[in-house]
Amino acid sequence: MKRSAGYGADPRIRWTEWLPWLAALAAFFLLPEYLSLGARILTYILFALSLDLILGYAGIVTLGHSAFFGVGAYTAGILAAKLRLNDPIVLLVAAACTAAVLGITTGAVILRTRGLTQLMLTLAIAAVCLEIANKATPLTGGADGLSGVTIAPILGLFRFDLFGKTAYLWCLLMLFSIWWLVRRLICSPFGATLTGIRENPVRMHAIGAPVYRRLLTVYTLAATIAGVAGALLTQTNQFVGLNVLGFEPSGELLVMLVLGGVGRLYGAFVGPLVYLIAQDVLAKQFPQYWYLGIGLILVLVVLFARGGLLGIADALVARLRRVGPDAPRAGAPRPL
Amino acid sequence: MRNMVALETRGLCKSFGALTVADRVDFRLEAGVRHALIGPNGAGKTTLVNMITGRLAPSAGQVLLAGEDVTRLSQAARVKRGLGRTFQINTLFGDMTVLDNVALGVAERDGVGGRFWRPAGAHAQVRAEALELLATFGLEDDARRRVFDLPYGKQRLVEIAIALGLKPTVLLLDEPAAGVPSLESHRILGALERLPANIAVLIIEHDMDLVFRFAQRITVLVQGEVLCEGAPAEIADDPRVRRVYLGERHG
Hints:
The complex is a heterodimer. By secondary structure, chain A is mainly α. Chain A contains 14 helices and no strands. Chain A has helices at 19-30, 35-57, 66-82, 88-110, 115-135, 137-140, 165-187, 189-199, 201-206, 211-237, 247-260, 267-285, 290-304, 308-323. Chain A is globular and about 55 Å long. Chain B is α/β, with parallel strands linked by helices. Chain B has a single domain (5-246), classed as Rossmann fold (3-Layer(aba) Sandwich). The longest helix of chain B has 13 residues, at 98-110. In chain B, 45% of the residues are buried. The model of chain B has no long low-confidence stretch (mean pLDDT 91). The A-B interface holds A 5-11, 184-185, 187-193, 195-196, 199-200, 202-211, 214 and B 53, 55, 75-76, 78-80, 84-85, 87, 91-97, 99-100, 103-105, 107-109, 112-123, 126-127, 130, 143-144, 162-163, 165-166.
């Protein structure tokens, strides 16, 4: 993906970038009994994508990204359960709006700080959101969670079924549309600016870029996407619990993204896929110790593959190219 | 256009607690002139540059660009008014290509840096201008390399190229030859001599050979105060300067 961004790059979509979508469609037909898990994975990919935008590209380190996910999830849940607003598209838009408002207001504060201060502030925002959801029992159901969420058929036509068929395709459609938008953004001059801010904010100021405004823009956008992901989770589960808020889901998301590879766009695809499947498999085999397995994978990645699983893939491809049949052998004259 | 003041500071002061690093600095940079700012380590040269660019807020005093008070303006607003700078320690976009390093600045100057729909790669004009600029520094073959993979001397050139991409009318160079082996410093000097003549250049430099070959005027800063200002010959002959700074080299 790095080759597609920037002023010297060819921004066209490569054939390899279509593979995840083909795989997702193939999974729909080949693995019908796993579609609920699939919808959950797609939702988390969308959530991870929004984190990659601010962490991987703009370099904003956050442990509070669940605030937007949770607010999106609760917005959709409360509107559906309490106000009988059940249309899935309306719910997505409403969740996007509340998450965006929370994003721009908290971003306006935290983006004035850097480093550890910023990290702690994001953590505080996530904690406050969790506590509000915990205490506002009449609205959110508190620790019992919010049940009674019913979602109307999409466009009045496609009912959310028990097997997750509709949910899977709905999540896939949303992920695809937002991926396309995010990809365009990353390849744009604005996207190059974000990478510039991550690499050197001091220099960005010195070349006259409105650094704060750009950061606030992307932070709000990432919050909006996370809100949409939260609302998708509500629609898939028809339930909202406190586990969408606070430090835990933020940390978990960070682990997924690091596992896949930060700042590569597709790391956000690989990470949640591997993490959630591993979680599913390990939790069945070792109900008490499955976290150990996840922990081991993460330790290995951090120790040996700082670029995440995609970083390993990149290194392998580079090595294969070097020993490939058309690579110049040592000692052989190099063609000019 | 000669004798027009491109940049001026009036009574600029900066203190960190009890430590005064700039004490009523009055300084004028005339349009199109090569002006050097010299002084011993800790004299407050970089602090002065940081106040001029808006990275540091002065405790008192004014900064004027082309006669206009910019003391309260942001760094970005000053850049828009033609102020460019380089850094003593390389301040590059490490994980980006050499081309992108320069193109980011060109795009900001053209006002396209905030565009989020058309791909950066489709902004052929920005790319062409960045490549042209790189060519004047002899860096055209390195355009697609990661900037941190370049040798240090070339990184120093990229440092200058980024600032030039802003098409500044005032360029502040903070020790452009710092850390460059003396065998390679001629490349930096060559680049400095090829700077467009209409730019007013303020250079901070410790390499006195470079200063005396390049500068038309010299200001000496000692402990945050302007000791004296004049043509290179006057400065070299000034006994006070020799005492505090030059030693016997140019005596």
